[in-house]
Amino acid sequence: MSKRILEVIADPATSNWVRKALNSAVGRDPVDAANDAEIVAELLKEEADAVFAAGVGRVHHSHRVAPRRPRPIVPKKRDTAETV
After folding, report:
1. How many domains, in total, are found in the chain?
2. What is d(CA 20, CA 9) in angstroms, rounded to the nearest whole number?
3. Nearby residues of 9 by Cβ (< 8 Å), 6 or more positions away
4. 30-49 pLDDT, tens per residue?
């Protein structure tokens, strides 16, 4: 586990949800874990935007996530040896 991940897990300001997510990613392929995290982030952003747009009040305007350009998904390296 990287030093940065350990710092975030140890930070008292880190939510239990983030801490659990990082701990559950240990041992996984980091590209797969990052891709899964991007899917979760996008879905939660869409949900927050919908709640905000509906004026339900659960999402304060200062907590709205600014749109960002999607990062390319890095494919996993595959064995390119041909089988005969």
Report:
1. 1
2. 9
3. 19, 22, 23
4. 999 999 999 999 999 999 99
